[in-house]
Design goal:
Elements (H helix, E strand, L loop, with lengths): L4 E7 L2 H6 L14 E7 L6 H18 L7 H22 L2 H15 L1
Antiparallel strand pairs: 1-2
Helix pairs in contact: 2-3, 2-4, 3-4
Length: 111
């Protein structure tokens, strides 16, 4: 059985990028930075696979919402950008296992 690669675009908030001082490196005005995350639908059939997909989404969020400053204010904006990007991707994939991994990771980071 062949695995179909599914694509998810991870969207980063321009506010997070602007706050990070990446104005020179950011895309043209109105363009939202994206990162394609590939995975097979079969991966989401197991907890381990869902964790692997979530890890890929988190890494992509780091690339879409880079932390280019050491300011705490900027760090907060970058974290918010990453969280929103991951949440949007998880919602787009619409898988219960992946949503559970996301919920667990979110509660760990907030607590």
């Amino acid at each position: 059985m062949t695995k179909l690669a599914t694509k998810v675009l991870l969207l980063g908030g321009l506010a997070g990028l602007a706050a990070a001082g990446a104005a020179g490196a950011s895309p043209a005005y109105g363009e939202i930075p994206t990162q394609v995350v590939r995975y097979s639908a079969d991966m989401l059939n197991t907890d381990r696979g869902a964790q692997a997909v979530y890890h890929r989404l988190a890494k992509a969020a780091e690339r879409v919402c880079p932390n280019l400053s050491y300011s705490l204010l900027v760090h907060s904006a970058v974290q918010k950008c990453r969280e929103e990007a991951i949440s949007a991707a998880v919602n787009k994939i619409h898988n219960q296992r992946l949503a559970a991994v996301h919920a667990a990771a979110s509660s760990e980071s907030s607590g």
